Request: fold
Amino acid sequence: MEFKAIIFDMDGLLVDSEPVWNEVEVELVESCGYVYSQEVRELGIGMRIDEFAVILQQHYPKLGSTPAAIEAAITQGMLRQPAERIRVRPGAEELVRYVADLGIPRAIASSSPQVIIEHFVALLGWADLIPHRYSAETLARGKPAPDIFLHTADQLGFAPESCLALEDSRLGTIAALRAGMTCYSVPDLSHSRLADFAEINNKIYGSLHEVLDNLKGKGTFA
Reply:
């Protein structure tokens, strides 16, 4: 199948940031005298921070007086991270440059706040490589709702069915598929297992290197 555009998730797919998010959340939770459970953490993988903050407040009431306060604390914690902590995922640079060199319309569609997206992209020097960057924070619903993918396709000027989405999380994969897109799932094994995706998607890759080899081998964007 030929695609007109490619849409990337960011955290856990292009950027190895999920462990950093976890560290920031652990620090906040433990500073309030709680133990951060893996079960609670997994609930938030792929979600918008404001939506996850509601869950965090339910489990850890002393984290903040409101979900908005918790969201702000986590966001500021991420922005304070040293630049060397924000690293690309294996194969991400090569894949992004490949589609950029071909002139393929491309965008980031992320659950992260716009300020985080812009911060990471600036640190990596990717502003020109990925010129379109969209956050779900301004939309009615975050992932697993399809809103961010539908919005991104609309901004790029293509039907969702003509876009290829790349995701690392289960919620993100569901969102892309609900939008009517083909989705290549590349699970971030810091928080997921390949088996977690088997029941929802038949296009699962072990790495972005594999995705790139597949695109080149099939001439998907040639």
